[in-house]
Amino acid sequence: MELIAAAALGKFIGAGLAGIGSGMSAIGVGNVAGNYLSGALRNPSAAAGQTAMLFIGIAFAEALGIFSFLVALLLMFAV
Amino acid sequence: MDQFAVHPLFGGELHWYTLTNEALWMGVAILMTFAMLVMGSRSRAIVPGRMQSVGEVVYNFVHSMVEDVAGKDGLAYFPYVMTLFMFVVFANSLSLLPMSFAPTSHFAVTGVLALLVFLSVTVIGFVKNGSKFLGLFWVASAPFALRFVLLPIELISYFVRPVSHSVRLAGNMMAGHAVIEVFAGFAAVAVISPFSVMAISAMYGLEVMVAIVQAYVFTILTCVYLKDALHPGH
Prior knowledge:
The structure holds 2 protein chains of 2 kinds.
Chain A: H1 2-42, H2 44-47, H3 51-78
Chain B: H1 21-39, H2 50-70, H3 78-94, H4 107-129, H5 144-159, H6 161-186, H7 193-230
Helix pairs in contact in B: 1-3, 2-3, 2-7, 3-7, 4-6, 4-7, 6-7
């Protein structure tokens, strides 16, 4: 009985810990956008051609955060 | 989280052929695409009207995206990319209407879209390049000993593509809708309801942006995968 209670508790602790991953990916997305901006201010004429790369970088950084969000969802509702 | 529940439109049992609210909103997205691109540009005016100019802007946008990322020979697959973009952007945006349903917040929908992209890109790669397509996994520019280390990494990152491609879109849409619902739950408490309404408005604005940006990201990643298939190697 206590094992089941501990498992139920651990589920929600794990879901909360997975939230850290989402926050970390926010740092990553901020890094990408900030570095893009600093590069764009140094060479504004080259900036327009690199917006696609900006979005690809943001998407890759963000995907890992979404993965941890998915892990949290799985822990809460599927396990 | 009632808003994500799939239920039959006309009641009855749920079979694979049953019309559900999910099918309804995917159909609405396709009808909207049709209305904008086919009905809107029916007159084929030299000086475009309102609808036609919006359609032309979207067409040019996707066209230049495919050309920039996948190259000139990627334009052969432009119709598929355009279809994907229009479907995703309309499904995302329509799901922001009150009382509507978000088809793209379901992994089943985005999973099929991403799996189709993955399969077709793999087939295109093998048809266009033959066994040279496997050079994608065998990094010829790296030192010989390192290639054995890179091989499993490249293989894993290739096969995880459909997962990340679909989970990114579905996760973003689901997270946005869930956040708005959480804030809406606070609106019932009188003391904090003004803040709740303000927070909902702010999140709604963000969601409008996310809906379009995620459709853009989904299509541009399709173009990136297409580029890898057409020109393998690093």
